[in-house]
Amino acid sequence: MNNSHRRIPAWLTDYLGMAGALGLLLLIFGLSTENFFSAATFGTIANQIPDTTIMAVGMTWVLIIAGIDLSVGSVMALSGAVLGVALARFGIPLPVAVVACLLVGLLCGLASGLIVVAWSLPSFIVTLGMMEIARGATYLVTQSRTLYVSDRLEMITDTTLLGLSAPFLLAVLIVLVAQFVLSMTVFGRHMVAVGTNETAARLSGIAVRRVRLAVFAVSGLLCGVAALINTARYQANPNNGIGMELQVIAAVVIGGTSLMGGRGSVVSTFFGVLIIKVLGTGLAQTGAQEPTKRLVTGCVIIAAVVLDYYRRRLRKTGTEAAQ
Amino acid sequence: MIGSAGAILSVRRICKTFGPVRVLHDVDFDLNAGAVHALVGENGAGKTTLARIIAGTHRDDGGGMTLNGQSYRPAGRTDAQRRGVRMVMQELNLFPTLTVAENIFLEDLPRRFGVINYRLLHRRAEELMAAIGLRDLAVDEPVGNLTVGSRQMVEIAAGLSQDCRLLILDEPTASLTDRETCLLFDQIRRLRARGVAMLYISHRMQEIKQIADTVTVLRDGRIISTHAIDTLTVEEIVNRMVGREISHAPAARTAAKGRVALRVENLCAGPRVQNISFDLHKGEVLGLAGLIGAGRTETVRAIFGADRLTSGRIYLGETAKHVRIRSPRDAIAHGIALIPEDRKEQGLFLPLGVDRNIAVPNLSRLSCAGIISPAAERTLARRHIDTGAIKCAAPDQPAETLSGGNQQKVVIAKWLARDCDVLIFDEPTRGIDVGAKFEIYAMMADLAARGKALIVVSSDLRELMAICDRIAVLSDGCLAATFSRNAFSEQTINAAAFSRHTATFRTQGAAG
Amino acid sequence: MFANRSRLNKYPLLPFFVAALLLTVIASGCTKRGSQDGKPRIALVMKSLANEFFKTMEEGARGHHAEHKDLYNLKVVGIRNEEDVAQQVDLIETIIAQGTDAIVIAPADSEALIPVCKKAMAAGIVVINIDNKLDRARLEREGIQIPFVGPDNRKGAKLAGDYLAAKLKAGDEVAIIEGVPNAFNGIQRKAGFQDAIAAAGLNLVSSQSGNWETAKAAECVSAIATEYPGLKAVLCANDSMALGAVDALKTAGRTDTVYIVGFDNIEAVQKLVKNGKVLCTVDQHGDQLAVYGIEYALDILNTKAAPADKETPVDLVTAETLK
Fold first, then answer.
1. Which of A166, B19, B72, C49 has the greatest CB tally within 10 Å of its CB?
2. Does domain A47-315 have CATH number 1.10.3470?
3. C227, C255, C266: best to mutate for the A interface, most A CBs within 10 A
């Protein structure tokens, strides 16, 4: 079999497929609106993706270990709320407030992870619980009021390097590091093993619980990071991030990560986020109404997953051997 | 040839390809009413594919079949069943949360006003189980609670529940004990007397000699020969299967006893492991024999830390150091490896490549500061693919696409790469073709020669007697007896295996 | 244990019947009526208690009750998020079962809540509608009359629109960010904006739903601003979305050329009105809205007067009025 020269393109086709889909979307919107192909559009998208991207990175890891984290939107809101209250109500110095914000995210993730691991519970239900807890805590912390904090957080949104905003660069950095950890480190390999076959992983000497706990903690921490960016832009609004978990999961799955665990790529997730955001911005730019937007977004999500199915089948037929 | 006397099913020029791989080439053969037709061949020879085409779960790409003189091309499993063709699958097809009775009659549950009539269901199930000699199995027990062997019997019972004219049995005895096998054979003989045609797929030559009337050898998707069973010796059959001469028995081993590698004292873990004590020496192969449910797997899992110990001590190495093993991690750190019973569920990461599978327990050696060296990983995989004679198209070929024998070699390779001192093999040759079996025996002999200590759990007593230096026999969770090589005999070992089970097996004995 | 299980297997429906029986008994025991202390009982059924606007409304009601404890008993309930119609229906059914004299309701949907309100009226409960006006045509078809006590959102929006129009000239491009598509007050506010736009001859280039959310509004405003470089103003149907508009325009560097109009006068926006980033917002005296409803309910209970709609005041909030 011509396996050796089929292998390297497999990497490429993964990304090329995604990039192609993205290109197609860009083309469609470019033709159907006047000013889609403009620096402003791409600047806007670059500005809107960092928080979603960072959360999607954590979600990719969680899905790879065959878990799911429904609490990301709420945990981000809670971290942001703590940040907002610390700054606006108590006037705490910025660095301290930032650390508190990150800690809240980390602790929420750790709590979910500990419960999942300690009682071997499905993460779906545990994080569903955490989603409610974090949201409730957010309302308590903010007293259900939006706190205006942009003036204190301008250094986050306004710092730029080579014309790119700091949050965007941070998100890209996190994507690259997470992909490196996933594909090149022992920890990454352990995640894949746990997600593929937990029993075999345990019998191969992998500390399954520690891996799971760590992944949930990272997901929580990344929610804290996303909260910094989200709050800097949208203020500490207790309703921030409602429904965001589904948007994040959609982006990750569009990127070809399996909900069944064991298979996924952070870089592809980044493409998934881009597709979702380009779609959102493009549709808004065409002036489409809410029903159209939802219909089209839904179709694109399903089409992406169906395409991914065929791409994988195409790759598999080469190595298929029958008994 | 078509419509030859007594033929229920005639297969003519059947072909099948999967992707680029052609698995069946113009296969012709006939199945006669009231006869057991054995189909043998190495894994990957196309036996299961052929059986599945007949049973309707695969479709052929060319050729044709006739059933009772009428054209036969089943659209699916149910279509085949409607025409009286049934298959007992190699992989278990039961629903673990449903009861034994529900599983057996799933397709035809007795109903009254749409509500399941449990009384009738249970009575029918009990009758059927009694007919195949499984009286002591509660028919309202969820299948998930049963041992693998018992599940296999339920699967067979389910296959027999409906009237069938052609029954395909794919490795039915793979996880059965000798006794259960005998009961199954009684049932097969009864069906034969009733005129049922049977296609019997197995790797166990002794069984085929015992039960089959005709044997067809399949190699690389082609029919090599069909003979009456009496006209061929086992050696002749095996040679036809592999297409070359292979020595039948593994080389006789000289038991050069080394120092103690592992000492187990009063091991207790759950109801199936009670006060087990034994020594294992360097360079020794210790067999663990016993009936299904005697606690063999549970014992080795307890040693490996996969199940919790309730009491008992484990000592390792020349200094007999007392070690605490709380998890497989601990066991591996102390140089113990376990090749588990169910390679697909417990041993392999099926969608991952051969290289990744081999690397998993060896990552610390392949990495620096937590970062894996791809070159080191590749080298390790290549080396073990070569030395282990693993047949794969490329090192990154997914493990799920390999044949059973090659999958098992991958599981073994991942531990060989770690250079463990104590290797535990749980049913290492279950469902594996003869060629691969002998390769694995040779691998074990080589390990022992290099001073490793081996424990082998197997339901195949002849296998244990051929490869082990000593055999420890478990019976109902206790160590019943240990035999050295010169004292091996089927009768005494079987007697020991039954010694503590007599109460449980009384009803069954009466039935048999 | 085994004997037990096999018995269940023989009578698989037994546990179901037992459970059904128990539920019936519990349910029948729960229905009790009548006030213990003779004071009228008023149930305030809110939308999301997490939303700042409703929180303010609720606090106003509680404050009023604290001062008039001798006049009535108050019970406040709310739903999880603003669109959860089913949960609000359940809440009202529970209240009917527990018994009350009057229900003051801010309906999550202007039509879907009508049947359950009708049921409450049939049980002899006085129903007062606040905040989101129930659909008149549907009420007529059902043959019931539920008085609406509250501000005229359309009038309020027109006030803000007129104030904006004075700063612009005819033909200037403006856009509207709507609330969720089915919300009555969202529709009214949009209509009010449109009235003002038509009156001043402004050019409405796009009108899209921001789902009441900050992030969603930011996405829409970014896209619209890119597509229409000449855009002069964005009219938002609530202040949370105005916050999103502020962020979007800041990112696009258009803060100085595009006016933003909000609605609701939340605390976080007041700052922005003062420093000119938001042109104006509308105060409908949220803290008094529920109070007006409660007072009217007490009125009807005492006088048995025939119910009729009652309008409450709306005021424009600008940098001058905040000084």
1. B72
2. yes
3. C227
Residue B173 resides in a domain:
yes
DSSP states of B293-313 as a string? TSSHHHHHHHHTTSS--SEEE
- Chain C contact partners (≥3 CB pairs within 8 A): A, B
CA distance A12 to chain B (A): 16
B431 band by pLDDT with thresholds 50, 70 and 90: confident
Cβ distance C267 to A48 less than 8 Å, yes or no, reads no
Residue B433's contacts (CB-CB under 8 Å, 6 or more residues apart) are B41, B42, B43, B44, B45, B203, B241, B403, B404, B405
Highest mean pLDDT among A125-129, C20-24, C132-136, C184-188: A125-129
Residues of A contacting chain C (CB within 8 angstroms): 33-36, 38, 40-41, 43-44, 47-48, 135, 139, 143-148, 150, 157, 230, 233-235, 237-242, 280-285, 287-291
Res A138 pLDDT > 50: yes
How confident is the model over B445-499, as pLDDT tens digits? 999 999 899 999 998 888 898 899 999 999 888 999 999 988 888 888 888 887 7
pLDDT at B277: 93
Q: B250 in a domain, yes or no?
A: no
ipTM score of the complex?
0.84
**Nearest residue of C to residue B140 by CA position?**
C6
Q: How far apart are CA A47 and CA C173, in angstroms?
A: 25
- DSSP letter for B353, please: B
List, for residues A43-71, the tens digit of each pLDDT value: 888 888 999 999 999 999 999 999 999 99
Residue in A203, A207, A263 closest to B338 by CB? A203
| Per-residue confidence band for B256, with pLDDT thresholds at 50, 70 and 90 | low
Structure tokens at B44: 């990957």
Q: What angle (nearest 5°) sits at the alpha carbon of residue A159, between those of residues A154 and A161?
A: 170
Domains, chain C, in order of start with CATH, read 41-146+287-311 (3.40.50.2300), 153-283 (3.40.50.2300)
Of C49, C55, C208, Cβ closest to residue A284: C208
The CATH number assigned to the domain holding B160 equals 3.40.50.300
* Residues of chain C found within 8 Å of residue B115, distances taken between Cβ atoms: 13
Pair B179, B80 in one domain: yes
Q: Which residues of B touch C (CB under 8 A)?
A: 99, 115-116, 118-119, 138, 140
Note whether residue B94 is domain-resident. Answer: yes
Question: Å from C301 to nearest chain A CA?
Answer: 32
Average pLDDT (B94-116) is: 81
Report percent pLDDT > 90 for chain A: 57
Most confident of A212-216, A236-240, B20-24, B291-295: A212-216
Contact B345 A205 (CB under 8 A): no
Most confident of A105-109, B102-106, B196-200, B407-411: A105-109
How many domains are there within chain B? 3
Q: Which residue of B has its CA nearest to A5?
A: B394
Judged by a CB distance cut-off of 8 A, whether residue C223 touches chain A is yes
Our CA-based measurement puts residue A293 at a distance from the nearest CA of chain C, in whole angstroms, of 10
- Number of cross-chain residue pairs from A and B with Cβ atoms under 8 Å apart: 121
State whether B116 and C12 contact (CB < 8 Å).
yes
Give CA–CA dist C204/C196, Å, rounded: 11
Long-range (24+ apart) CB contacts under 8 A made by B52-59 are B52/B87, B53/B14, B53/B16, B53/B24, B54/B9, B54/B11, B54/B80, B54/B85, B54/B87, B54/B166, B54/B168, B54/B199, B55/B80, B55/B85, B55/B86, B55/B87, B55/B168, B56/B80, B56/B81, B56/B85, B57/B87, B58/B16
Structure tokens at B297: 């797997």
Domain that holds residue B57: 7-242
- Where in chain A are the domains? 47-315
